[in-house]
Amino acid sequence: xxxxxxxxxxxxxxxxxxxxxxxxxxxxxxxxxxxxxxxxxxxxxxxxxxxxxxxxxxxxxxxxxxxxxxxxxxxxxxxxxxxxxxxxxxxxxxxxxxxxxxxxxxxxxxxxxxxxxxxxxxxxxxxxxxxxxxxxxxxxxxxxxxxxxxxxxxxxxxxxxxxxxxxxxxxxxxxxxxxxxxxxxxxxxxxxxxxxxxxxxxxxxxxxxxxxxxxxxxxxxxxxxxxxxxxxxxxxxxxxxxxxxxxxxxxxxxxxxxxxxxxxxxxxxxxxxxxxxxxxxxxxxxxxxxxxxxxxxxxxxxxxxxxxxxxxxxxxxxxxxxxxxxxxxxxxxxxxxxxxxxxxxxxxxxxxxxxxxxxxxxxxxxxxxxxxxxxxxxxxxxxxxxxxxxxxxxxxxxxxxxxxxxxxxxxxxxxxxxxxxxxxxxxxxxxxxxxxxxxxxxxxxxxxxxxxxxxxxxxxxxxxxxxxxxxxxxxxxxxxxxxxxxxxxxxxxxxxxxxxxxxxxxxxxxxxxxxxxxxxxxxxxxxxxxxxxxxxxxxxxxxxxxxxxxxxxxxxxxxxxxxxxxxxxxxxxxxxxxxxxxxxxxxxxxxxxxxxxxxxxxxxxxxxxxxxxxxxxxxxxxxxxxxxxxxxxxxxxxxxxxxxxxxxxxxxxxxxxxxxxxxxxxxxxxxxxxxxxxxxxxxxxxxxxxxxxxxxxxxxxxxxxxxxxxxxxxxxxxxxxxxxxxxxxxxxxxxxxxxxxxxxxxxxxxxxxxxxxxxxxxxxxxxxxxxxxxxxxxxxxxxxxxxxxxxxxxxxxxxxxxxxxxxxxxxxxxxxxxxxxxxxxxxxxxxxxxxxxxxxxxxxxxxxxxxxxxxxxxxxxxxxxxxxxxxxxxxxxxxxxxxxxxxxxxxxxxxxxxxxxxxxxxxxxxxxxxxxxxxxxxxxxxxxxxxxxxxxxxxxxxxxxxxxxxxxxxxxxxxxxxxxxxxxxxxxxxxxxxxxxxxxxxxxxxxxxxxxxxxxxxxxxxxxxxxxxxxxxxxxxxxxxxxxxxxxxxxxxxxxxxxxxxxxxxxxxxxxxxxxxxxxxxxxxxxxxxxxxxxxxxxxxxxxxxxxxxxxx
Amino acid sequence: xxxxxxxxxxxxxxxxxxxxxxxxxxxxxxxxxxxxxxxxxxxxxxxxxxxxxxxxxxxxxxxxxxxxxxxxxxxxxxxxxxxxxxxxxxxxxxxxxxxxxxxxxxxxxxxxxxxxxxxxxxxxxxxxxxxxxxxxxxxxxxxxxxxxxxxxxxxxxxxxxxxxxxxxxxxxxxxxxxxxxxxxxxxxxxxxxxxxxxxxxxxxxxxxxxxxxxxxxxxxxxxxxxxxxxxxxxxxxxxxxxxxxxxxxxxxxxxxxxxxxxxxxxxxxxxxxxxxxxxxxxxxxxxxxxxxxxxxxxxxxxxxxxxxxxxxxxxxxxxxxxxxxxxxxxxxxxxxxxxxxxxxxxxxxxxxxxxxxxxxxxxxxxxxxxxxxxxxxxxxxxxxxxxxxxxxxxxxxxxxxxxxxxxxxxxxxxxxxxxxxxxxxxxxxxxxxxxxxxxxxxxxxxxxxxxxxxxxxxxxxxxxxxxxxxxxxxxxxxxxxxxxxxxxxxxxxxxxxxxxxxxxxxxxxxxxxxxxxxxxxxxxxxxxxxxxxxxxxxxxxxxxxxxxxxxxxxxxxxxxxxxxxxxxxxxxxxxxxxxxxxxxxxxxxxxxxxxxxxxxxxxxxxxxxxxxxxxxxxxxxxxxxxxxxxxxxxxxxxxxxxxxxxxxxxxxxxxxxxxxxxxxxxxxxxxxxxxxxxxxxxxxxxxxxxxxxxxxxxxxxx
Lengths: 1097, 702
Known about the structure:
Chain B: One of its GO terms (molecular function) is zinc ion binding. Chain A is built from 35 helices and 29 strands. In chain A, a hairpin with an 8-residue loop joins β13 and β14. Chain A is α/β, with parallel strands linked by helices. In chain A, strands 4, 6, 10, 19, 21, 22, 24 and 25 form an eight-stranded mixed sheet that branches. In chain A, strands 11, 12, 13, 14, 15, 16, 17 and 18 form an eight-stranded mixed sheet that branches. In chain A, strands 3-5-23-20 form a four-stranded antiparallel sheet. Chain B is α+β, with helices and mostly antiparallel strands. Chain B has five domains: 46 residues, SH3 type barrels, CATH 2.30.30; 207 residues, Rossmann fold (3-Layer(aba) Sandwich), CATH 3.40.50.410; 102 residues, Immunoglobulin-like (Sandwich); 76 residues, Up-down Bundle (Four Helix Bundle (Hemerythrin (Met), subunit A)), CATH 1.20.120.730; 99 residues, Severin. Chain B contains 21 helices and 26 strands. In chain B, a hairpin with a 2-residue loop joins β20 and β21. The radius of gyration of chain B is 28 Å and the shape is globular.
């Protein structure tokens, strides 16, 4: 369609940089200078092999990543820079310079592998030549370089280079110069890039040609998936064999006019491509890792059915555009796998400022050497533009996703607790920042300069210590607050409410006993469970028993409080009917120690289901229940948590009474936002009171129909609580899920009555916050409760110029009451780099965090703007980010090429997932409550959760040999990836599906389901039979391990191919077009490309 | 309608007709009276049966209802004692009586008595006034949205099921309730230093009234309120919880400085009226050293016929025995109490009813026999008395009206009939009819007749009631002046004297004691508030307005007995001259029984003579007043305060304040007598009072 139209001018986008790079470079080389390229190519081929060999070390990886090509591509220009960087890199590497650094591991491989092939020419040459060139250069090339850089990064790479260089040398020299020359022009300064590029673009096209030529060779080596199949000809990719299963897809044969594919992945030399004159639609990804991505990177496909995009002129074009080869576009799976392979093995050491941590999907250990672990804080970018102008230009939001109480893997130590005695923690007098490793001690240690506000403070005598020759305190390593990124202080009484140390918190269980709750069996189940669950309340450290006291309330239209004092023979029930003016009818005996009152509590829990067994009461209240819990905590003068188990819309006459206002007709109208807004302001007011009391509310919903989650979740949301929803709860089906969530929720460690404050060094400021909390002013995040799963997302804005030398610091201080009633301060410090080059910014971004932020931003936006506006805003912002990169950082190339920054090459696919999510584009089966539920869930999700939530994990169960016990590699979330002879698991953190292909072997069916044929499998099954065979055990084990990874229990649903339920399942195949109108990945990419092009022109 | 009018009716035995002598309507005897004849008269027609009681069989009999409303802001031992008393009372109730329990402190709890296993109560905030409707809604007493058919009155049989949760037959929940009472804890809310406990009496009572109102309207029921201190929060609060602010005194009230009084009074009046309207009576058992707000709450008992008991602690025999006495039974095994009564007064045409004073409320029934002048609660010919016991009395005031065209026929008789409908404690409905007739006498020509028929005791009590009634709403001195004026006018009318010659003044025997009663009345706590707290005044007035004549007279003029070796016990003058060293005095003021040992006797006792066999007579002397006091204690309700004191003892003040101060520090030496004990007071003595009275009576100026 449009694509086509547009296509001609700027057709496909090749993404994989690697590939492109190669091309580009070539092109560059060629154009600008003499056609070095050709030579280079020739050389390449030659070299390639050589390289490959040479880089033996990295090699292993390299090959696969063959993406190498990119490197090469990038190279031209990048190459140099890259090199430059490398050079630096070497030096820096140690420290971890830019992004690359982080990925070093990954890179290396690349370097070796990829570089060899593609890069060889440009990269090598250029780099060397210019090596030393200014950083600027590098910057420009950044994207490209990245790939290049990466490779080189490690020393070994160096070696690898060596060879290439040599090879290249001859020709290389020229190119280099040429390149440089060209750059310089463009360069002006780093900024110059922009200019440079434009100019370059044209050449790019030509490049493709060359590239194409390359490709073949390249392909020979690695498999470069190129997708470019530019549509021009309308040819389809089909041609190219899809040799590589993983990512690599076959390149589009003919179609690829442009040299789109770079990597000539599968051997197939795509000559046609070369024809490339076509404006190659190559997407260049600047993705650095040429190698890795290499394969994926290029997608130069046209925009096939971009129709969906709202903005796009959807009309299908006459020209049957060729589909963009899905294998050629960046694959999340590949990125994740690569990161795992490259960075999973070594611990991530936080000592150096501005390092990009491994992806959330990678398992890695963290060593705290002065910066907070990425488990606590993740940023959208670890390199902050020095000026707000730059930041505005890039449009990359500067945000940090902070999980202050994150749970750590057992191998990592939880933060040290520092006790400064009565004097309390040492703080800056002016800005009140807490002592941290970044504070500078001066005057022989008698004073220290605050790293946030530069104020000079006296060091109290008891804290004095001499400095060593480097100006460091000699006790720096003995004091957590001087050497670690995260630690805790014991708070003094000054940090406590009313200047009184807090009492231990309390848990109050508030159970709906109306007709619905009784009938579904919920009450009986819950009471039974509580009897044992209460023995597992969170306790601190090695405490023998939990300090937490418990209380019980049941309610329907009225509330029933229970006196469970240990001295009573029987519990006493106190009914409060005055729901209009709620109060707590008893003090003594309501909140009790579990052990002391064991007998009475057990008796109570036995009796509750009996007492209400015959209830006819269907109406419930809600706000008064929360009010009651809050008042109870107030009366007991402690913080705590309410566990509310609620079934229906609170229609009984009482404050907070709600009416059914669900109206699907509002969808896609300006009034749609009202569906997300609370019906009444009463709940906000209530929440405010709760927060003031440190009363956190966890809500378990068991609705059979509309309950107005949007309103009911207001209080949990503002008090840092969680909402769980079990639609149409039935004990048989949902018991496991509910109980598991409940156990986890009750047992998890929570901080109460917390206040969080984020301080930053001069120049940036925290301006916006997302998450489950309440704010009374613009700086203090108040959390009635905060658990280890909840995050607070903070957005920063410039209010002054930053400088590269000092970087940017942030300190997140969380004052909270532990579950034993101890008042503590948890401090997380993080130092970021600052950059004057946009390329540095793009090189040090983290797409997962970015998506996390953007999703939260968008989900908040739906409260005030029409959903369509929100979606358009997202698309626009994304396009701006990418366009800015393209304009300022990417090597010059054809306008038809889509060039994505390496770090952001998944941005389109992930963003598309966000856009298609239930909140922003609901399908017909999605209820208003579901949307509100998801909306508030996402608000406090961490990066790992949003990652899998938006892009579900799809695991083939029967592909790998049964004996293989490791988790099978995931496949992309697309129907095309499903083979009807296999079984797959799909999970997104909330749902778990087991998809069974129609032609799965009988043996497999038998061993997994215990039935003899596919047709006998019960669709919708939620529990797999426990069978004594390897496959069954393996699958069960896998399911268990998946569940263990997520904060909520995922109920299993077995879906059979071609079954009714499959629709539901397909909803989660996010790369495909969705029934509700969501675009497929390919379409969206095309659309995005178009947007970018519009911005560029 | 007025069916049977005994001997005052004119009966035609042949025609089986009788003529009503109030309205002169001729009526047919009902079939049951078919057999009557001149020799076979029904009881109604026999002169000796001025009072006849009929048992009504129709209508559902409803059980007795007792709703305990218990303050839990008590000291531990007080609460324990109260709990025991309550548990004891359960055993005294008939098995089918319905009982309910409300406890209160900072909150109010209505206990549901029907549940097994887990004790359940409905809790209300103590600070919030609720309407009857709200209370019933919150207690789940309202019927679940059944469309109301206006034509069809609600079926009464639904009541038991609805109310069953809170009011249960004692035989069903005896054990339950006993346990529940046993487990009652003191109000658990902490009371900070310097504060009073928060006590929600106003709301508790409101809920009790609302509960009965919703479940058993127009059925006899007793709300028994036990309080150990003043209401300190919510509607009906009498004092704040700051201990440093004392509860209002008469001084504060006079200075208009009792900031909660009016509001609280209004609250309790509203409750009292609602309870009365539904035929429920409210008892107040207040045991505390300080005031408890009886002043504000008095209307609850006064309007509903409930008991008011005041004591120092629930852990005293005064309370325990008083409370026990409430459940005393007659020889038929029935409680000496009746419920939900209405009293109707009918008069022959020359008489009109001006009003009633006693534990009643007006039913606002106008009629031809209702006077336009109100005395007491007037403007009606019917009153409601929600709780009755054998001592309950009403003072009823009549007016003789001059019929312009029909002068009162000489020799004729005026008739009055009292018709009392009530629920007997056996749950029967009964009607008691008392008819009296009196001859007319002409005030001019037959003054002697009138004089001879004058009952000065009854007159004193009735006047006193009127005076006390006025004192509730008027300034003390005004009332005294009014009383004085009345007395003077009486003396002027019936005294024999020569104008302007006080010495000539004489009163006939039938009037002779009257001025003395008035003298003591003026000094009594019913009209004097000095030295009494507002609560005490209310308490005394309460009882004065309901006790029978004898008791009332004791209250006005306490009885003094003397015990000595000089002779058998004898009544002596209530005068300071009666206080002698070798006497033991026993004074009964109704509220107190004081045994006072004269100076010598006290010394003897201290010396222990009574323990010596040779002085056994002394021992007997000491014992005699104790025995007599026991006698009184046995029958008196409420239990009087029992005081054993001696010459010079601090509690002797109870005696000294009552006797006529014939000897004071002012006149002691002038009299030069050695007998008697001087009273340190500036009050006038009876002698002075009489002198003034005579002077004024004979004066022509008045």
